[in-house]
Amino acid sequence: MADDNKKVETGNSDKKAATVVAKAVYGGQDKRPGGGSRPPRRDNRGRRNGSRDEFEQRILEIARVTRVMAGGKRMNFRACVAIGDRKGSVGVGLGKGSDVTIAINKAVNRAKKTLVKVPVLNDTIPHTILQKVGAASIIFKPAKQGRGVIAGGVARAILELTGIKNVSSKVLGSNNKVNNARCTLAALGNLRQPDSRPGFKTKKEADKTENKIEDKTENKTEDKTENKIEDKTENKIEDKTENKTEDKIEDESNDKKSAAKK
Fold first, then answer.
1. At what angle do helices 177-189 and 154-162 cross, to 10 degrees?
2. First CA to last CA across the chain, in angstroms?
3. Domains in the chain, start-ordered, CATH in brackets?
4. pTM of whole model > 0.85?
5. In Å, how far are 137, 227, 239 from 232, measured between CA atoms?
6. Torsion from C-alpha of 199, 200, 205, 206, nearest 10 degrees
7. What is the structure's pLDDT at 40?
């Protein structure tokens, strides 16, 4: 018992000595201010996390895929995910994994690599488009304000993530969600701004071209009429001069003949 008491006393004295040394070194303050709570970070990790969450995610389909192996069946999961910022950027990705969360993470990463910038004009698409990818085909038409998104299934989710509020659509081909998602993304990627489409002209440009064409035609007609008038006058003058010279020559010849006879 005496030995045990001695050991306890020596342990307490060691702790007291450690506390005295710590106070002497750190000035009587703990390493972490605020009672052991960690101070806020000064790096940009918070900003990075904020930038990651700028895209909204929608799970379009989760399928269970089985593969027959030598020892039995191996089961995996396939996830089709669409992401978008509701400001014109949208992407679709497909991922596979042994767990649902792994498949979704892979699909999100692939969707971020295949982002498409969609031109949005007055909360709708700029023009009608018919797209066909494989067996899937889909048509999009612009709509008026307040019409809403008339679409179903995969197309509706992708259009909402894009930020389009008024559009009419119809899925014409396959019922496969993955193919329809790819077809929708291809159709949105092929949309063009009105000024960037080849051969497209606004009303002002069309009026200018019409005025130019009219001016050219008027100038051509005026030039033709002037040329015709000039040609006619020149021909008349030439005919008169020729007739006069011929008459003079005949008169001189007649005078010479009469003089010779005399």
1. 30
2. 188
3. 54-189 (3.30.160.20)
4. no
5. 66, 9, 10
6. 80
7. 58
